[in-house]
Amino acid sequence: xxxxxxxxxxxxxxxxxxxxxxxxxxxxxxxxxxxxxxxxxxxxxxxxxxxxxxxxxxxxxxxxxxxxxxxxxxxxxxxxxxxxxxxxxxxxxxxxxxxxxxxxxxxxxxxxxxxxxxxxxxxxxxxxxxxxxxxxxxxxxxxxxxxxxxxxxxxxxxxxxxxxxxxxxxxxxxxxxxxxxxxxxxxxxxxxxxxxxxxxxxxxxxxxxxxxxxxxxxxxxxxxxxxxxxxxxxxxxxxxxxxxxxxxxxxxxxxxxxxxxxxxxxxxxxxxxxxxxxxxxxxxxxxxxxxxxxxxxxxxxxxxxxxxxxxxxxxxxxxxxxxxxxxxxxxxx
Amino acid sequence: xxxxxxxxxxxxxxxxxxxxxxxxxxxxxxxxxxxxxxxxxxxxxxxxxxxxxxxxxxxxxxxxxxxxxxxxxxxxxxxxxxxxxxxxxxxxxxxxxxxxxxxxxxxxxxxxxxxxxxxxxxxxxxxxxxxxxxxxxxxxxxxxxxxxxxxxxxxxxxxxxxxxxxxxxxxxxxxxxxxxxxxxxxxxxxxxxxxxxxxxxxxxxxxxxxxxxxxxxxxxxxxxxxxxxxxxxxxxxxxxxxxxxxxxxxxxxxxxxxxxxxxxxxxxxxxxxxxxxxxxxxxxxxxxxxxxxxxxxxxxxxxxxxxxxxxxxxxxxxxxxxxxxxxxxxxxxxxxxxxxxxxxxxxxxxxxxxxxxxxxxxxxxxxxxxxxxxxxxxxxxxxxxxxxxxxxxxxxxxxxxxxxxxxxxxxxxxxxxxxxxxxxxxxxxxxxxxxxxxxxxxxxxxxxxxxxxxxxxxxxxxxxxxxxxxxxxxxxxxxxxxxxxxxxxxxx
Lengths: 333, 492
What we know:
Structural class of chain B: alpha/beta
Number of strands of chain A: 4
Distance between the termini of chain A: 25 Å
Largest interface: A-B, 25 and 33 residues
Shape of chain A: globular
Mean pLDDT of chain B: 88
Helix content of chain A: over 70%
Largest sheet of chain A: 2 strands, antiparallel
Radius of gyration of chain B: 25 Å
Distance between the termini of chain B: 37 Å
Strand order of the largest sheet of chain B: 6-9-10-3-11-12
Radius of gyration of chain A: 20 Å
Number of helices of chain B: 17
Oligomer: heterodimer
Low-confidence stretches of chain A: 1-8
Order of helices and strands of chain A: HHHHHEHEEHHHHEHHH
Low-confidence stretches of chain B: 240-248
Number of helices of chain A: 13
Strand content of chain A: under 5%
Shape of chain B: globular
Strand order of the largest sheet of chain A: 1-4
Largest sheet of chain B: 6 strands, mixed
């Protein structure tokens, strides 16, 4: 499936994944050396939990990016679902399974809306989801009237999806990590082993050629936006279950950018048709490790968080581009 | 003295000769027509004259002085302008903005709006256009837009106008108006170079006709020498002889594909009806803009269409390529890079793309079966490859074209729609593809093939349908096929 399958490696590991893995290890090693708080069990468990939550969002973003589109509404949808869940359960007494179902149903409608506007009406994905970004946060603020909502001391059964952990070889692995692994494996299977996945990547590479070959491109695009919205809603619910409170004015702010940056760092090309599940999971984790690094290493001022993230992502993209040019030049020569 | 002259210009693309030692000249107040078959080198020659391309050998002269054009800007400064077949104007700007684009009159760095309007009005008047320069361009007809483009060239003091197929998308009325404009420009001393497939137009307008064939100058005829078949004979080389091959459509065969009164958006009023029987290859001939590609796309359901398409006796719904595929129709598009292939994807992935559901169980791919088909297709179509996991971008044009054909054949179709199946393909691969298509027809496939090459039609088709302005001009049996007849009908 990947051009790099020429390498004597299994198809699901490509050069890009090796690159991001290397950066991940280097950043980790640097932080471990620069701060003695990095390798403590509490920090690692927390890091794994955050990485898993953001990984779910990156996974969703990647479905859309592979088609050549973009979803900027992820952060606002995180906010909307994070506010809806406690609002339904705590303030309106819905049974948790029903409340979760309602949130997913809302996400389904939103995903369908995005997909139909993009695929059937031919609107720009950037524009459609930018409007979504404004709309869903606005909705969330209206629904809970700008109040902070949360579960207080209740709903511990539901909250355990985000807060609990299991002992794996003496290490406490948080439940969201298992959720992410399950979703990532499912995504990898669909991408690599099904007709649908092959069609998805084909349309990302050349939509016209795919359409002329009889691929139902519009349906696939709609499906991708639906998957993205569902995963954003799942992420939003897990976030609010984890931190136990959501304030609609800023909950999930910028999360779409973390999600997209993670996917891009992990090898998803914004022009579409490229991406690996393993790469984007590492990419999403790298974003969280970097934030952790900035917080733990005293030499790095906390105020510079965004600036440092921006520089690192830009460096990653530049590195990727120069590698691409070098391979191209070598092929020609 | 000649306003513009080319002396012994040659040009090669990737080692393939496009032009060889061509001489050309045009004087003020003269209209020189350039004719030749597709691929004869007309466009290359004009692009060199207009500074778009640089010749490998030979040089250009303006007013008798040797010049070198590094780009179109240089040529523009020397007073030479190329009016492309597809107009190069900005829809979103006004007529005046378009006419003066890149050459706006300025005062203290700001646009001098009043002077701009004045100059635009003047330029428009010189092409006989009486419209408000502030009209948005998108409100204009194609014919008007073309004259705006000419006005744009004149506003830049163009003394040589090169027009590439200017009437290909004009109605008859618009064509007449354009001719009148050209007559006026000629009388005013502009040198005109006119490229056209339509011999009747050439015979009517030209002071002199220059004929190109296979990249060389085949000859030049003055106006009074244009009589009978002389021009056509010169274009084609020897006087065209009919190819005889004795292929016959099986008598009494039911049509596999039936096209009933199909119309496309390009030619809104024209309708086409035709039939293709199993085992038969039908060629679709015509000029650029005749609507051949549009017809094929409409049949396959990519674009909207009027009329009916019947496959094996059953009507297929419009705008549904998958339904067409299910009824046994496969389509090979014209532009393999943009419409046919996933360039960065592997051979295996490209070959299997259209028929993936065939090699799946409950939506999961059967990887072994796909690899088997890809390997088999490479062998059968003689696609040269070291590995089916290599990206198709690494392949030659001929092999890429075979991959697109292999992708169609993976569907095991009973009807094939082919659009220029050997465009930009080397001679060896071309023969192989032709052989393959004939073999498929012998196996009972119905084939409808669009081609601009007479040689291809002669090699493949049992019958040729000639389209002109979106309608069937004539239908020729194989024994009646000759290039002159096809061109003659196509240009009507």
